[in-house]
Fold this sequence. Notes:
The protein has 150 residues and is α+β, with helices and mostly antiparallel strands. It contains three helices and three strands. InterPro entries: MetalloPept_cat_dom_sf (IPR024079).
Amino acid sequence: MDSSGEFELETPDRDAVKSALSRYRTNTDLSITYDATPVFSGGGETDTIWQEGAFGMPDYFRGLTWCNDPVNGTRHRCDQHYIRIRGAGTYNQKIAGHEAGHAFGLVHGAEASPVQGQCADRMGIMRASVSCTDSPGLGAVVKQNINWIY
Ligand SMILES: [Zn+2]
């Protein structure tokens, strides 16, 4: 979690990330640890960098996850993701859990196979809009997909 400068996370943001990741740690096979002295590039780089701030998209985009180090140039495997969520109170467990899902390889309903509605209940935390996501719970399909992938 970015701890200084333009994209620093304040305590409530950090708490939202911790809660979201705890949900993955508790409900899936993922082993998630926090690296307090991360390496940002090269061998042994940290898997995910969390930031707070703008990212050049319309306001209805609350967060964005992108790969900055694809494995051998592939589209769907990534060594390191950046997750940036808007500031001014936007960080919450739902958005943090959703963006973490992208970093773990999950997609929205429109990109799922078979295709699902963007607000389909079965998409759980990966519903495309926070407005149709009623809780920060992962959802059964998210848990299954995470455990299947990892
Ligand atoms: Zn998304």
